Amino acid sequence: MTLWLAIVLVALISIGFKAAGPVLLGDREMPPRLAGVIALLAPALLAGLVLTEVTGPAWSGVDWTLCAGLAAIAVTYVLRVPALAAIVCGVVVTAALRFLI
């Protein structure tokens, strides 16, 4: 339940930041540096949520098969594989490792 509450709060904060720009700036153009920070805020917060969910409290619940699946997703995505195929690759790697262990 707390994870979903955090996701909703992050989404609301992100929407608030994105809505505050036009409200505060009016017809003026948003500075490029500020636009870059706002664009990167949601992915950074999502990465933090994923990391805390994967590692557990105080790094005690680390699931190495899940970490290997996430690494497989990262590698395939860097190799310009489509996102859906990269996720399927990560799922297959995680499932295979859990089956073998």
Give me the secondary-structure category.
Answer: mainly alpha
First-residue to last-residue Cα separation: 30 Å
Approximately how much beta-strand content do the residues carry? under 5%
Q: Bin the helical content.
A: over 70%
Number of helical segments? Answer: 4
Shape: elongated
Contiguous runs where pLDDT drops below 50 for at least 5 residues: none
Average pLDDT value? 87
User: What series of H and E elements makes up the topology?
Assistant: HHHH
Largest sheet: none
What does this structure look like?
The structure is a single chain. This protein is mainly alpha-helical and 101 residues long. It has a domain at 63-100. Helices cover 80% and strands 0% of the residues. It contains 4 helices and no strands. The chain has helices at residues 2-25, 32-55, 64-78, 83-100. 6% of the residues are buried.
Summarize the structure.
The protein is mainly α and 101 residues long. It has helices at residues 2-25, 32-55, 64-78, 83-100. It has a domain at 63-100.
Q: Which characteristics define this entry?
A:
101 residues, Brnchd-chn_aa_trnsp_AzlD, transmembrane, membrane, Branched-chain amino acid ABC transporter, transmembrane helix
Topology:
Layout: H1 2-25, H2 32-55, H3 64-78, H4 83-100
Helix pairs in contact: 1-2, 3-4
